[in-house]
């Protein structure tokens, strides 16, 4: 589950989890995972309680995924469903929106992480996002940055279709009601309901 800030990812991820739990064993993982030592550094940075070089914080976000990659693979091998609230696509979109970092450089540290079978991208205009609770509290929640992030997500969508044809990419209009958005998400992941077999694919 990917999306812009305040697009409703955490709310919708929880609902999707409950829906799928009726028929699957589901593991829900949130990135950044702010509970680990690396995650605590990320949390302090996002709340503007520390300063870090743009490259350093990018690598920490990636390391925060790598420290969980073994768990993700074990869950998949056990036949379970894994849902991630943000993943490497956010890692690229947010970092590459900074003029100091190139798109290709940002992709590199996440090479060979387990690839998802589907990416649900919750799309929302910065104007609508701003009207939702809590917006503007964290470092990246600024209109200009969110606009650039949205553009980069569109580029990632195009590149994913070309290079990772096995990944279902669903861009969902997240400006509707909670139920409307949930219906759209459930429809988008329906093709995966029968289960996935074969080797775990890798990014990118
Ligand atoms: N980041 C992340 C990187 O730069 N690199 C990385 O590698 C990764 C993984 C924190 C930041 O880190 C960046 C991206 C972020 O800037 P985060 O912890 O996921 O990432 O924090 P946020 O994305 O900011 O999470 P938010 O809590 O802001 O947004 P959500 O999860 O999209 O939204 P949610 O579900 O909490 O809802 C927000 C509010 O909107 C309401 C909710 O009730 C809530 O008040 N809402 C709705 N209101 C009306 N209609 C709807 N349909 C609504 N859906 C939700
Ligand atoms: Na969230």
From TrEMBL:
One of its GO terms (cellular component) is cytosol. GO terms for molecular function: ATP binding; dTMP kinase activity; nucleoside diphosphate kinase activity. GO terms for biological process: dTDP biosynthetic process; dTTP biosynthetic process; dUDP biosynthetic process. CDD domains: TMPK. Residues 2-185 form the Thymidylate kinase-like domain. Transmembrane segments: none annotated. InterPro entries: P-loop_NTPase, Thymidylate_kin-like_dom, Thymidylate_kin_CS, Thymidylate_kinase. Pathway: Pyrimidine metabolism; dTTP biosynthesis. Pfam families: Thymidylate_kin. The keyword Transferase applies. It comes from the Eukaryota. Keywords: ATP-binding, Kinase, Nucleotide biosynthesis, Nucleotide-binding, Transferase. Its EC number is 2.7.4.9. HAMAP family: Thymidylate_kinase. Belongs to the thymidylate kinase family. This is Thymidylate kinase. It comes from Serendipita vermifera MAFF 305830. The lineage of its organism: Eukaryota, Fungi, Dikarya, Basidiomycota, Agaricomycotina.
